[in-house]
Amino acid sequence: MRQDIQDVKLMAILNLLNQLSNKNSLEEYLNGIIDFLSGWTGCENIGIRVLREAGLAPYVVYRGFDEDFIASESCISVHEDECVCLRVLRQQFKNEDQDHISESGTYYAQNFFQYVEELKEDQLLSFRGICANKKFKSLAVIPLHHQGKVVGVIHIADVKSGVFSQEDIQFIETIRPLVAEAIYRHNLEKALESTVRRYEAEEMVIRKLKFEERLASISARFNQQEDFKVAAEESLKDILKLFKAEQVCLHLGSNLKEYVSVHEHGKLTHGCSISPKTFKELKIHWEKGNILCQKPAHQAEFKEIGSLAHEVFKKDSVLTIPLNFKGSLLGVLIFVNISSGGLPFKEILNPLKLVTETFANAVEQGRIQYQLMWSENRYRTIFNHSGSAFLIVDENLKILLSNPQAERLLGLPSEKMDNIAYLTDFLPDNEVRRLKEYNRKRLQQDSHVPRQYEVKYKDNQGNLKDVIVSAEVIPQTIQTVLSIIDITEWKKAEAELQFLNLHDRLTGLYNRVYFEQELRKYEADPSKEVGLIMCDVNGLKLINTTFGSEAGDQVLVTTARLLDECFKDYLVARIGGDEFAVLIEKNEDVDLEQACQLFRRNVEKYNKDHDGYPLDISLGYACSGSCGLKMSELLRNADDAMGREKLHSNNSTRNSQVQILTKALEFRDFITEGHAERVQNLIISTGQLAGLSEQRLSDLKLFAQFHDIGKVGIPDQILFKKGRLTADEWKIMKEHCEMGHRIAQSTPDIYPIADWILKHHENWDGSGYPLGLKGEEIPIECRILAVADTFDAMTNDRPYRKAQSTQAAIEEIMRCAGAQFDPHIVKLFVKTV
Q1: Which pLDDT band holds residue 800 (cuts at 50, 70, 90)?
Q2: Predicted structure pTM score
Q3: What 3-state class would DSSP assign to 53?
């Protein structure tokens, strides 16, 4: 009988070994163990708990125990709970356990519930759990050891007592290594599987990170590298290494011209061995987004990649991938001899597509970045080098950006303006409010605010400047661009032009344009009585002719000053070359006659206080009357009154002209002093002997005085030269005859002798100047003057020689008779000496 039991036990063990080798999963094997134990012991409640990670020991398989029991027991921590099963797992027992623990660490009780009921209250804490509450009587917890460690327990329980014996427990202990081995193998497989999965996951993460890093570097490189071509070349090197290609070419643009190419060995290459004709054919497919491949390279037609997706690429192909962005073909990437790493090409196709999509995005981004950079550089160049000053201000008129012209305009460097200063710092106090209001309304898109306006700025030194400002809000911002043109000089020029338009340039008085404007105003309002004084400078033509236009201008300026001083409260204007007018809005306090007398006294005082040619001014005045008068009639009446004064003062005027000529001679020729009087005495005596009339003798005196009047036009360096004149200088000196002739013609008092002045250097033999007359063609007055003038010149000192004696002079004159002088006149002259 005992042998039979041993045989049964042996067969059971062999059966368990067989199950261990045949079962596919731990659960199947452990369920087989439960089947065996249930049949062997007849127990209704059996479970196997397996020690897991995190200190948990759940029931992997069980039978008989209800779900509540399993759920509550499975979630208990091995390290924290006092359950009997868990104490067996830990192999850490308490005093009250000692009666039920075997040498192998098995907990066994034939009437567990009765035992628990006999324990003291404080000992019950060691048996918390549903094992006690379920009132199990038969209880055994058998540890499963493997290599000295407990990997799980077999939990057998029943409400009936004595269901299994001590011997049954011992037999079960003999098979527990088999169960522990199964659990250990399972845990090992799980650990290996977990390790492999973790390794694969880590490897995948690493590959993904490296792949994503390459993608990120491609995108970043185009953002960071200013040179687009350099960025493209570096990115192609990354792609070449990533997919183990021999060469990668990038073609860009509408014509797909080669842009950059890289080779695995760093060799310089050009082109990817695709003919232009083939390129043109392939472009149609690339525009549709088709990936095309030639395999073997240069020996087959290009096909869509789908037909080659299952083939392994071993550096025997030409692969073309279009770079499309939003339906537009940006370019194409061409891979020569790409490798799929021993895998079907479909395994690298998606990463390859992802790379090219990233590259396409980077190319587009780079193109946009280049356009933005080009646009920014263009506008920055315009901003910095424009002829206008530019400022960008915010909503508070804070200066955000300024250009060099703004620095010069405001007198402050940009580093002291940008993001520091406010536009209001450069505005006069009376302009601040207006500019702030303009800015506020402009930001509110008020169409009535002017886009261009004139304003005054003040620079850093406080100098006011007139400027024209054009303002425009930058779209989608609250910032405004101000274009500023400095018109300070324009305004000055405009004011000057305005002044010159209404004022006489020489005298600074109002001109005829302004004078006539004012006349029309009074004509439009007949209720106002107006007086007009006309003034004319006498002898101005003579002064211009005799002394030059500068002297005449000085006379006009002096006249204007005297008029302005005398009539400072009224409108004084120069209305012609030598004409002035004074317009007076008349009232009971104004007496035009007295006003004219006052001016005459001022002129007399000026002539008395100043040497030189005297001022001779004629005046005339008229009044519109209370009934009104056309301004043209008023002007004519005043002019007629002035003409009458000229007639009444004619002798005085002529006398002043003679004084002018006399002053001119005294001022221009120091040798004239006494010369005219001596010559007068000589020619009068000779003229009397020649039988000239009293009238001709009177004119002969005037001729003696003014025959050299033309010398006032000869330059000082010639007229006062010490030493003989050069040929050119002598030519200029001889022009004084014609100059004197013109002066005499413009002067009534000496007009009768104008012809004599022209001919007074003609010689008897025709060798004189300026006309080359001879003999009787020369007026007798000129022949008489020629002898007397020569005699006086010889007997008086000259700048270039000393005076000769009278006898020597007479001998020289007699020697020249018949050549230079009239012989008859010489004989008469000698009698008078």
Answers
A1: low
A2: 0.44
A3: helix
